[in-house]
Amino acid sequence: MKKIKIRFIKRGKIPSDYLIQHKTWLGWKHIGYWQGTCTRDSIWYAYCNANTDELLKEVLEYYYLTDKKFVKVIEYPMLKEY
């Protein structure tokens, strides 16, 4: 069973949403994806959502290509970004 170490980052005040990071050998890294065209133009988007459970489900499905029952998720304390 694979272990994934994650933490959420709350950004904003009233209409807040959450970002997600995972732990690597060099520290914490945001989880996101590249979206580009046939030319050199490409943009990096971070996964974000207003609900942490939906965000975790989305990241496990699209980034890790697995389900929550096949991995062990270790969640670290949340950070707040102002």
Q: How would you concisely characterize the structure shown here?
A:
By secondary structure, the protein is mainly β. Helix content is 13%, strand content 51%.
Rounded average pLDDT: 89
- Largest sheet entry: 6 strands, mixed
Distance between the termini: 36 Å
The total of beta strands comes to 8
Task: Specify the overall morphology.
Answer: globular
Helix/strand order, N-terminal first: EEEEEEHEE
Q: Percent of residues in helical segments?
A: 10-25%
| Structural domains: how many | 1
**What would you call the quaternary organization?**
single chain
How large, in whole angstroms, is the Cα Rg?
14 Å
Strand composition percent: over 45%
Assign the structural class, choosing from mainly alpha, mainly beta, alpha/beta, alpha+beta, or little secondary structure. mainly beta
Residue windows where pLDDT falls under 50 for at least 5 positions: none
Number of helices: 1
